[in-house]
Amino acid sequence: MKVDSFSLPLSSPLATARETISQRSGFVVRYDHRGETGVGEATPLPGWTESLDDCQRGLNDAATVAAGGGHTDVLLSLDAASVPAARHGFATALLDADARADGVPLYQWFDSERHCNRVPVNATVGDGSPAETADAVERAVEAGYDCCKLKVGKRTVDEDVARVRTVRERVGDDVTLRADANGAWSRDRAQEAFDRLAPLDVAYVEQPLPADDLTGHAGLRGNGVGVALDESLVDRRVDSVLDADAADVLILKPMVLGGPGNAHTLALRAREQGVEPVVTTTIDAVVARLAALHVAAAIPDVAACGLATGDRLAADLAPDPTTVTDGAMSVPQSTGLGIDPTEVGTDA
């Protein structure tokens, strides 16, 4: 097991609840397994995963285990609850090697009966005035997207509803609109927003309430706008969210969940309970984006996913083998992740 650090500049700063991020730092993991070298990525994100230092310690400890044991011992040493990004890095490298050894793309390693060339993806539009928001959505639609996610919650409900209404009037009824409040609303404000967004045919609102309010989220369901949970999955098991009937949609980030295998398992578990999975990234480099793409490709009839995030980086670990056209991302059909491990560098 080999671990190398990297740091990649963002094309523009990324504002989170804790800080503004100008670069994404992490680790490339390489692991030899079944005669193949698999490659993985561990890119922690503050507020979502462990810190960069904790990620490094987790990977260093795992490398020590790998020197004296097998891959099962390494996976057991990496706790998805405490070091999810570190576990993602190793688990992805292991799965990449397994799929290479079996001669299949990773999504077919998850489901040998699947054949998927393209995965639908959404465009994300940030906060802005009604005209600015509508202009951004119109540009996305002209670029081929038929699903757009709008950031809401920083403004009043009146202002956000006006923004969504302007977008709907501009692009018509054929474009799927989603909203993401990042937990900004109280129960009363969320209910008001849902009541007013329903006539505008908003498919769902992502994280309308704070992460720990599962009861409040459950109470919002069934009123014409779906409830999607994202931040709520950071500090609790998905089973508790499903048992609370708190979501119509789960936003699954493989980096946050401890690896693509975990994300795929949780997607199928959600489907069994009538909850739709949507796979997204945490503004990752190309290796982790590909891993998330293969998870999505392994889910039949998956809804548009948040995978078209490569343009948020000013540099990357390797050339991206995917393209986004007409609102869908191409899925590599070569073995493993679809990227040559020898082309993955850390000196960008």
TrEMBL record:
Residues 324-348 are annotated as: Disordered. The keyword Glycosyltransferase does not apply. It comes from the Archaea. GO terms for biological process: amino acid catabolic process; menaquinone biosynthetic process. InterPro entries: Enolase-like_C_sf, Enolase-like_N, Enolase_C-like, Mandel_Rmase/mucon_lact_enz_CS, Mandelate_racemase_C, OSB_synthase_MenC1, OSBS_N. Pathway: Quinol/quinone metabolism; 1,4-dihydroxy-2-naphthoate biosynthesis; 1,4-dihydroxy-2-naphthoate from chorismate: step 4/7; Quinol/quinone metabolism; menaquinone biosynthesis. Keywords: Lyase, Magnesium, Menaquinone biosynthesis, Metal-binding. GO terms for molecular function: magnesium ion binding; O-succinylbenzoate synthase activity. It catalyses: (1R,6R)-6-hydroxy-2-succinyl-cyclohexa-2,4-diene-1-carboxylate = 2-succinylbenzoate + H2O. The keyword Thylakoid does not apply. The active site is at K151 (proton donor), K253 (proton acceptor). It holds the Pfam family MR_MLE_C. Residues 130-227 form the Mandelate racemase/muconate lactonizing enzyme C-terminal domain. Its cofactor is a divalent metal cation. Mg(2+) binds at D180, E206, D230. Its EC number is 4.2.1.113. Belongs to the mandelate racemase/muconate lactonizing enzyme family. MenC type 1 subfamily. PANTHER family: O-SUCCINYLBENZOATE SYNTHASE, O-SUCCINYLBENZOATE SYNTHASE-RELATED. Converts 2-succinyl-6-hydroxy-2,4-cyclohexadiene-1-carboxylate (SHCHC) to 2-succinylbenzoate (OSB). This is o-succinylbenzoate synthase. It comes from Haloarcula marismortui (strain ATCC 43049 / DSM 3752 / JCM 8966 / VKM B-1809).
